[in-house]
Design brief:
- The protein is mainly alpha-helical.
- The strands form 2 sheets. A 3-stranded antiparallel β-sheet has the order 1-3-2. Strands 4-5 form a two-stranded parallel sheet.
- It is globular, with a radius of gyration of 20 Å.
- About 40% of the residues are buried.
Length: about 300
């Protein structure tokens, strides 16, 4: 009988859980970060910070991190500099280093970029005539369901990213997911904090399943509506998590979310479009269609067919 390793809990209070650092490196392709000691230290630390295993505002010690990672201080110093460039740590000479707090404004910026790219990619997917290979999406959905059932936050988060990457790749532009991922560290940290909430993971699986069903059936309008609602639920998460963990967040400094969503709809669909009001309170329920599905904005070709 195999004993499962207890999973770290995102946002847990207290000292750094160095045991989480070993777990945090699993499942990530080495080529994405580099094979050097510094690259591997960066890979593991970045994942631990993004998943909030190391919470926002946590003081970091080069010596302790080096010991936990089994490397010298030089790779750790290199990793911390790269993380500072990512906006995930703050290095203060003569004062110390700590993980940055989550910027609500930067998280909103990332959500704007992500929705623009992923909904545009979805529209391109429906314009492709060849049958689509959806096996990878079904595999990731099964992995995500299993991770949700086992309350495995790290595996769930990884399968969520793989699902969206595979869905975006159907457009024929494999690099779009990479562009979106590079900008959304603050957004992903807020999302990670919400994973331990009751029903959050199961609801996300349900949204992915409905989205995949519409893609498979060739329902472009419905798929876009589900995608839009799914991506904008993070605005609810930002409000909830910043209220629950005020010390983890930097308050909003930029334009309001309604201004951003109107601008996004104008970008995607032109002057005749209007933005759906942002969801409020708990995660918005996902349905097959909404009153502002933007139907008729994009010609609806014959839908994708699964091989």
């Amino acid at each position: 009988m195999t004993t499962r390793t207890p999973q770290p809990r995102p946002g847990a209070q207290g000292p750094v859980d160095f045991a989480a650092l070993a777990f945090a490196g699993e499942g990530e392709p080495e080529e994405a970060w580099g094979r050097s000691a510094g690259g591997q230290a960066y890979r593991r630390l970045r994942r631990a910070i993004v998943l909030c295993y190391i919470p926002p505002g946590q003081a970091l010690s080069e010596n302790e991190l080096a010991g936990a990672l089994g490397v010298s201080r030089t790779p750790v110093r290199e990793a911390l500099q790269r993380l500072a460039d990512d906006g995930l740590v703050v290095v203060r000479p003569q004062q110390g280093t700590e993980t940055s707090r989550i910027s609500v404004h930067r998280a909103r910026e990332a959500q704007f970029v992500r929705e623009l790219l992923e909904r545009s990619a979805l529209a391109l997917t429906f314009q492709r005539r060849p049958p689509l290979e959806l096996g990878a999406l079904h595999d990731q959905l099964a992995r995500q369901q299993r991770a949700a059932d086992e309350h495995d936050f790290g595996a769930f988060f990884a399968s969520d990213q793989h699902f969206h990457r595979a869905l975006t790749a159907l457009s024929g532009f494999d690099g779009l997911a990479r562009i979106a991922a590079s900008a959304r560290a603050h957004l992903d940290r807020a999302r990670a904090l919400s994973l331990p909430e009751p029903e959050t993971m199961q609801q996300m699986v349900l949204e992915h399943r409905r989205l995949l069903e519409h893609v498979e059936a060739g329902h472009q309008t419905e798929a876009d509506a589900v995608m839009r609602s799914h991506l904008r639920n993070v605005l609810v998460v930002l409000t909830q998590m910043s209220a629950r963990f005020p010390g983890y967040f930097v308050p909003e400094q930029g334009p309001g979310e309604t201004v951003e969503l109107v601008a996004l709809e104008l970008t995607l669909h032109g002057p005749g479009a209007h933005a759906a009001p942002p969801p409020r309170g708990r995660r918005a329920a996902v349905t097959g269609s909404t009153s502002d599905d933007l139907s008729g904005q994009v010609p609806r070709p014959d839908g994708p067919r699964r091989r």
